[in-house]
Amino acid sequence: MMLTLVRHGEPERDVVAAERGDPPLSAMGRMHMAEAGRLVEADGYDVVYCSPLRRARESAEILVPGVEPVIDEDLAEFDRDAQQYLHWEDGAGPYRAYLAGDLSPWGTTLDEFRARIWSVVERMRRDSLGGRVVAVTHGGVINNFFAMLLGSEQVSLFQPAYGSLNRFLYRADEGWTTMELNATAVRPEEPLFNS
């Protein structure tokens, strides 16, 4: 089985109060997903799963137009019941708790969150019959799945980019192997390394 976890596109920042907990995609977020769609189309897929959160559902519509994804609650981010979406890159205070492994500000625990992630990954693996699965999800889900594969207690090992593809291969005789992290069709604006 090849599992591709795709992070949703960038959410809108300036939204009405009713949308603050689950904002729609921004124009840039739509571009992220259109570009990611080129990569998904090149690789192909057998089934598409999606988080129920709006930013993920809208991302899936752009990523794989005309495909009805399987919505799975366990693909939702740890902040799924928050009153306001906080952009990770803004360095919001509550993320200090998250980085320390404390998910209590979001009404859950790290163990509960990771159990949800493992549960949905196992369902997708079991149901895929060795095929190619694409799942539109969130940065925390991707980071914690990767951390579990490494046996790490850390909740953030890298920063999944908006619209990034993160690929994991499962073989019955070997288990899970990380194949690729943070693949995007758009180059970063700033150089990754200074010469």
TrEMBL record:
Top-level taxon of origin: Bacteria
Record InterPro entries: His_Pase_superF_clade-1 (IPR013078), His_PPase_superfam (IPR029033), PGM_Phosphatase (IPR050275)
Name of one Pfam family that matches: His_Phos_1
Gene3D superfamilies noted in UniProt: Phosphoglycerate mutase-like
Full protein name: Histidine phosphatase family protein
Lineage: Bacteria, Bacillati, Actinomycetota, Actinomycetes, Pseudonocardiales
